[in-house]
Amino acid sequence: MGRRGKRERGLHRRRRASRASSLTLLVLVVAVGLATGGAYAVRRGAAGLLATAGTPATTPPQATNDRARSAASRPAGDRPAVPAAGGVAAGTEITYPARGKGSFRTATTVSGVAGRGGRLLRYRVAVEEGIAGVDVEPFARQVTAILADPRGWTGGGEWRLQRVGRDDPADFTVLLATPVTRGRLCADTSDHYTSCRNGDQVVINVARWVHGVPHFPDLAQYRQYLINHEVGHRLGREHERCTRAGGPAPVMQQQTLGLHGCTPNAWPRVAGALHTGPRGQYDDPIPAEH
């Protein structure tokens, strides 16, 4: 996602001793079992060449990616795995390679129309082949729930949104993609960290969907922000800056990269009104990790 007329910089970071040795051993065994059972793994790494069959067409101009002059981060292996949430069964882990197959599974179900007035836009939802632990239909329902929330873009009477099926005409597509595929679809292969909007493609980086960012302690809230921010670009919104220290960030602020005194906010509308800030963006570095 970036300046007008150019690509924009579009877009987380625990026993006691007992009275007898036998009881102590039992407690330790249970504790170890719980710790092991509660762990989730996120697989990273390259996996084959990027396939082109079934890949939605890329729209090169006006990509809204998050680009910056420098990059700094911890190694990818230092980030803890995060439990799968939203659109997947409890206990399911989300695994993905750095580079997916390049083809996508598209949700076939159709939602109702969200919003009470305004222009109607129809959208599809798709998940890249190679991402495991995310079924496309539940993921599509989660995207739809976010976009239908009255705190979102459909709450003010300016926009109506409806999810359509694979073969239906659509105004844009929400794609959950692996980091390398994200770079290609966003026309910025140097960035495997953020998400973007490129033409009629809203590209959600699965690495951010799984890990979030350190300054968003609530992963569900970050996911809501991610959908609303990138879809906001498709609706014609540009980047905005923090309004005041301690206040909620505008949803069009690049919160993936920094808050700049604001507090995390996932929604376009705050306290019943559209919450905006001054146009512009910060020169935040993009972390190099996935």
Structure commentary:
- It is a single chain.
- This protein has 290 residues and is an alpha/beta fold.
- The chain has a domain at 43-238.
- Helix content is 20%, strand content 13%.
- Strands 1, 2, 3, 4, 5, 6 and 7 form a seven-stranded mixed sheet that branches. It has a two-stranded antiparallel sheet with strand order 8-9.
- α2 (136-148) links the parallel β3 (119-128) and β4 (159-163).
- The protein is globular, with a radius of gyration of 20 Å.
- 44% of the residues are buried.
- Pfam families: DUF3152.
- Residues 53-64, 74-88 have a biased composition (Low complexity).
- Residues 95-259 form the DUF3152 domain.
- Residues 53-88 are annotated as: Disordered.
- This is DUF3152 domain-containing protein.
